[in-house]
Amino acid sequence: MRFLHTADWHIGRRLHGFDLTEEQDYAFQQIETIAQSEHVDGIIIAGDLYDRSAPAEAAVQQLNRMLQQLNLTDKFPIYAISGNHDSNIRLATGTPWFPRTNFYLYTQLEQAFTPIELTDTQIFLLPYFEPFAAQQYFQDESLQHLDQSVAAVIAEMKTHFTPGKTHILVAHFFVNGSAQTDSETQLTVGGLASVPLSLLSDFDYVALGHLHGKDALQAPQARYSGSPVKFSLSEAHQKKGVYLVDTDTQTITFKPLSPLHDVQQLTASFAELTQPEFYQQYQLTDYFGITLTDTKPIPNVLTQLRTIYPRIISLNRAEGFVEQFSYQGEKRQQLQQQDPLDLLSDFYEHIAQEPLTDQQKKWAAAALKIANQEEK
């Protein structure tokens, strides 16, 4: 059988305030085209369909359109799970009758132990869960950490294996040895919230979600598809796409997706950035993280640059700000005794490398007055 593996759609996500609806629709259209042209037998979505547990109405409508198009119009079976960004309860709305159209969306741990039975394949859908859910299911309080919980879950799943069939696991967690980017929720604390790759060895393929880069894990039978859209500057170097998994030929093929607007990092001086021969080599509707190499302050630098690069998502200086404020001992006491407006002025000048204007000081004084009145 042939499956398309995708994950981490994060519908409703914004990129530093910029709406990504068009980018996500554009990626979805490519995913649909790949599924149709490759005649896949099903589509796997390994969690984080939404970006937040209480998605906005527009995000709900957008995801509904996508799922209806794939399942009801295109007639593709869908095998999906909830991720750590999803609300299990909200996402589960309507799921009792979804299987009538071959749409399987699992949001509760107990569902993971009933595999979806296909002709020669068993698909186990394991939604994101916390160890407490495993404690309740197994009635075992010793399951304190995710690795222990997943070990118990996998052991139970294996008791439902049908010999001779291909076994696929769809899951959403962090596997030891994987690499993260700053747009992904940090789930590892002292290594206790990660899962050893060895636990997954009895599955023929493990379709993972949570990490946004396809190269986050290098394993022959386990892959992160990555997100279809870039969600942070740290993902600028990543190639987005989906995996095609053919269980008959035992091949895994990456199919790239093209961005509507790419995410790029530029490092240059203000003079270079504003020269036509420099900026005309880029698609100026892309999202840019800009690092200035200038050492002197530039008035209204962000406003000026946005006349050329309208989608700037970050702006900083190459040399950084080495000095750090110290809040210990005598210095801390001095700061506590300092006038708030003077403290703000010092902080602003330290960071912006230019003093507050008279108008900015007036705004700050007015805001401080309101804050003081609210405290009384």
From TrEMBL:
GO molecular function terms noted in the UniProt entry: 3'-5' exonuclease activity; endonuclease activity
What Gene3D superfamilies does its record include?
A: 3.60.21.10
Q: Which SUPFAM superfamilies does the entry link to?
A: Metallo-dependent phosphatases (SSF56300)
Keyword tags:
DNA recombination, DNA replication, Endonuclease, Exonuclease, Hydrolase, Nuclease
Location of the Calcineurin-like phosphoesterase domain? 1-213
Q: Where is the Nuclease SbcCD subunit D C-terminal domain?
A: 260-350
Family under the similarity heading = Belongs to the SbcD family.
Q: How is the subunit organization of this protein annotated in UniProt?
A: Heterodimer of SbcC and SbcD.
What is the protein's name according to its record?
Nuclease SbcCD subunit D
